[in-house]
Amino acid sequence: MEFLNKNDAGGEGEKPVPISQVEKLTGKQVTFYAIDLLDYNSLTEIFDKHEFCCVIHFAGLKAVGESCIIPLTYYQVNVCGSINLFLVMKEHNVKRLVFSSSSTVYGEPQFLPITESHPVGQNLLNGYAKSKYYIEGILQDLCNSDKEWFVIILRYFNPVGAHSSGTLGEDPNGIPNNLMPYVAHVAVGNIPNLNVFGNDYNTIDGTGVRDYLHIMDLAEGHVSALEKMLKSNDSGAIAINLGTGNGYSVLQVINMFSEVSKRKIKYEIVGRRSGDCGSSYCDASFAKEYLGWEAKRTLKEMCEDTWRWQSLYPQGFSTKT
């Protein structure tokens, strides 16, 4: 297995700490290249060195709010970087891809729960969503032009949590952009309080509702997609929702995290954030039908594993152990 990544902690010539942790957990060596997908020549060199049968494409920027502030950066990194990858894959006759997409391509939901037949690309609320939508369109065009391509597009809802060992978790640069790591940093004392963006949505308590998915369930979804891809003679581009099918509000997440951590989570209600919708949760039945996958872990487990990671590594991977 080869990992290509641009931004990870680690000194010159060293493997990033998360990769070392993966090696400890699995007992296997991981080949790792720290490159930028915008660097076409370096990407080509890696494909020249190795014979790949399939690619799982996670690389990109992912903060919704930030994408409204620096949209061009999101288009450059996410879209242009992806095009480079697809070109190099084509040149090396690697035509099987699992792509990390997002539920944000659905925009403001027209109905709930969201199925894969829900319209995409309409009234998209931020640059991040648009970048994922554009990449999906490129992949559809690629598959239509060459029937040898087989692409599984995984539309994530809201991945959270950490490895149950507490040794692998989310370590954002600077102030977290997403709810769960932000709550965890408040609980551990790194940040004084949490801003809750809006309490006037048409939801159970007025705060935004999302389909939170444990990162381990998400990882297992990718394994299922890869196994399907390697065993199947299918072709074309297939979009699949990955979520639990349950929606939880911001306040429900805060309350559950407070219960698990036994810490009071201080928060302040502020105005709505640009790029957010009120509710988003999925119908994940197609994932079970096509991949044999379904989410198993509860919101409580998501909070427990996040707290285990954050309490063991309060400063993330830079924490001295």
TrEMBL record:
It holds the Pfam family GDP_Man_Dehyd. Keywords: Carbohydrate metabolism, Galactose metabolism, Isomerase, NAD. Its cofactor is NAD(+). The keyword NAD applies. InterPro entries: NAD(P)-bd_dom, NAD(P)-bd_dom_sf, UDP_G4E. GO terms for biological process: galactose catabolic process via UDP-galactose, Leloir pathway. It catalyses: UDP-N-acetyl-alpha-D-glucosamine = UDP-N-acetyl-alpha-D-galactosamine; UDP-alpha-D-glucose = UDP-alpha-D-galactose. SUPFAM superfamilies: NAD(P)-binding Rossmann-fold domains (SSF51735). PANTHER family: UDP-GLUCOSE 4-EPIMERASE. Homodimer. Belongs to the NAD(P)-dependent epimerase/dehydratase family. This is UDP-glucose 4-epimerase. It comes from Cinara cedri.
